[in-house]
Amino acid sequence: MPVSTEITGYAASFLAYAHSLSGDARYLDAAIRAARFLTRTAWDPALHVMPFEIGPAAHTYFFDCGIIVRGLLSVWRVTRDEEFLAAAITIGNAMMRDFLSAEGDYHPILTLPDKQPEPRDPDRWSRIAACYQLKSAMAWYDLFESTGDNCFREPYQRVLEYSLQKDLGPYTRDNTMDRLHAYCYFLEGLLPWVHEKRCAEALSSGILLTQTFLRKFAPEFARSDVYAQLLRVRIFAGWAGAAPLIDRGEAAEEAAALATYQASDPDPRIDGGYWFGRKHGETMPFVNPVSTAFAAQALELWENRVQVTRHSLI
After folding, report:
1. How many other C-beta atoms are found inside a 10 Å radius of the C-beta of residue 238?
2. Which residues are CB-contacts of 56 (< 8 A; sequence separation ≥ 6)?
3. How many CB atoms lie within 10 A of CB 70?
4. What secondary structure letter does DSSP report for 91?
5. How many Cα atoms are found within 13 Å in the side-chain-facing hemisphere of 239?
6. What sign results for the dihedral spanned by CA atoms 32, 233, 229, 61?
7. In this structure, are residues 224 and 261 in contact, taking their beta carbons and an 8 Å threshold?
8. How far apart are CA 142 and CA 200, in angstroms?
9. Is residue 23 classed as helix, strand or coil in its secondary structure?
């Protein structure tokens, strides 16, 4: 299968986080290898673009680029290697330049090599320029904080404002667990701006909404990453004072449910990972690296209660 640049970006973030917990140099070495793959192999200097997949490079995704920027910044914060900061800035600038539409929002997907927008599809969250892209836009705010350059602050606020106006919720068009997963990205993307009343209220109400729909969908289909995302955003919102973790019973139920997805298997590629989901009570036979990263972080935050910065959010 083609190599995913997005998942490599997530891996870089998770490995840097694992190093911060353990001090184990193997995690940092792996994080650096992942970051260098993104800067030295994946980045296309001729097109000045980060492709969706390696071989062949047919598309570039706005969402993926933001995740990659955040992954590079995670490794840069540990190493202070200017290669990673410079690449994050370059990709952040490419996001502003290439994805901007005539209407002022940002196209979700561009074709390569011509960088033309793919048609939008309201039935597929990854093809909507709405609230689901806010987590990726958060990379601009991270760049603003890392560089002090105000040019990165405005586009995050633009996507934030658009997202608050176009909050589609998990219940729009199709009540699926996949849409709920995407809605959690919106909640995560609110975190840099929770000091503003509207964002705090959207985050608080969104947590309750996600909780309600997760319990509704779970008997038919549940994803481990949704349990992890909801638990993480509860914790970060509580630390920010935006949505105090009043009902710890709900969070404890989510943590307990999430833990049941961890795999025990003689195959070292699977052992310790987290199964992607369950349908009608049957475990789906897929161990997803992003689900594993989200779940491991969520349970670490829940069990040890050690406060970390928002930048640690994978």
Report:
1. 17
2. 2
3. 23
4. H
5. 16
6. negative
7. yes
8. 19
9. coil
Terminus-to-terminus CA distance in the chain, angstroms? Answer: 24
* Helices of type H across 1-149: 5-22, 25-37, 62-79, 82-98, 134-147
- Sign, CA dihedral 124-129-130-135, equals positive
Q: Quick one: tokens of 104?
A: 């002022």
Question: How many angstroms separate the CA atoms of 146 and 98, rounded?
Answer: 22
Q: Side chain identity at 92, as an amino acid letter?
A: G
Instruction: Return the structure tokens found at 238.
Output: 């509580």
Question: pLDDT by residue for the chain (314 residues), tens digit each?
Answer: 889 999 999 999 999 999 999 999 999 999 999 999 999 999 999 999 999 998 778 999 999 999 999 999 999 999 999 999 999 999 999 999 999 998 889 999 999 999 999 998 887 888 888 788 999 999 999 999 999 999 999 999 999 999 998 766 666 555 688 889 999 999 999 999 999 999 999 999 999 999 999 999 899 999 999 999 999 999 999 998 877 655 678 899 999 999 999 999 999 999 999 999 999 999 999 998 999 999 999 999 999 988 899 999 99
* Domains of the chain: residue spans and CATH: 1-166 (1.50.10.20)
